[in-house]
């Protein structure tokens, strides 16, 4: 019985330490974000732009591929049901609204968590193992400002852009299905889509993607900075970063859906 | 020997990793303008001690006074100012793998000064030539040998002309000739720039080649502090065993051996 309690206590303590460390990182990131534009060298735009290229531009092919595929899948599934009631034109509504409100942000975030979130954790973790992070500190530079901030800001700029592009490509996937399989002319389909989309659909999707960006980059940086123990540690923390990111993304999505549902 | 002014004073330093006590009441002084060697076997706590001296870790108790200021109690901004006057060479060089050698050496100058890029480039070349790496500015760290990486790391450590220069096991992984060349470089830096140099090592040839002042650690405690003569004349058998490279005696009777096997 005491063994069980000891194990539980130890687990609770280690979880508390993890949460405390995550909280400390959050505070430091927020403080640096606020003070960076006023610091001696200003905000680190060159490093941030490099990260933006890696996170955003290099992800375009995979995001387009998956978004287009999902758009077609949703359109086909919708068409199967709507055909029974002779209302296949509403495929446009369904694809448009579900992509911009839900699937676009969620899908893009999960792809980027697997692709860029793991890269952030692996990079920072490798730097920690080879003492590069310590070298920065010993040199009087702040690893949070130098390494974490450019990645977090880059993610915050790029993920909403990627989400928007994913929405567009997904809708185009629906266009393809509607035209080739349902015989709906492209112009009609697009008009129906635009008619169905409300500004708040697009906005709610972008706000979600912005929060997801914070989660992905934040978890990646947190796990990367906590790596210990060589290559095995890097691997473990990289995996943990992807798993934790996806879990938190879906949890956040649930919270958002409830909030938007209540707000109407 | 005339007592020279102590630029670093450590008093009753105690530190833990979890519940394990690594340093147990360590006190010593580092005289200005001389080479101090922190000597000890593996597990003696010497690398941990060095990390505390550059502020990478906080002790559980005790004081570390650098130029009269206790760095364990300094606010961040003032600690950064002290760090700008110190340089440290980590065991593997800790070069930033995403930058060239030249960019590595120039980084402290870029971040901490308002110098023109052309001036910084000249200073980078000077430092690289000092360590024997002239012409290697555009190489990536991965393209260098282990010895060259250490020298590049040293060039970066002296980029800001520090008053205190620390070395974490500089001979580790180097062949005897390269290690001797590095010792020569250390002596040259002391003579030419009047730097205070702190070397953590367990290599006896380096010790006798460069040390003015020695602090010997074992199991987190100071065994001997003084000049090379004080070290050689120490009555402590553990010191003499270390200097003579004599391993600690194993169990000399069957009874003791059997008891150690069954964990008695």
Your description of this structure?
The complex is a heterodimer of chains A (264) and B (264). Chain A has helices spanning 2-35, 45-55, 60-82, 91-129, 132-138, 143-182, 186-196, 199-225, 230-263. Chain A has 264 residues and is an all-alpha fold. The N and C termini of chain A lie far apart (50 Å). Chain B is α/β, with parallel strands linked by helices. Helices cover 38% and strands 25% of the residues of chain B. Chain B is built from ten helices and ten strands. In chain B, strands 6-7-8-3-9-10 form a six-stranded mixed beta sheet, sandwiched between helices. Chain B has a four-stranded antiparallel beta sheet with strand order 2-1-4-5, covered by helices on one side. In chain B, α6 (176-193) links the parallel β7 and β8. The longest helix of chain B has 18 residues, at 176-193. The model of chain B has no long low-confidence stretch (mean pLDDT 89). The chains are: A mainly alpha (264), B alpha/beta (264).
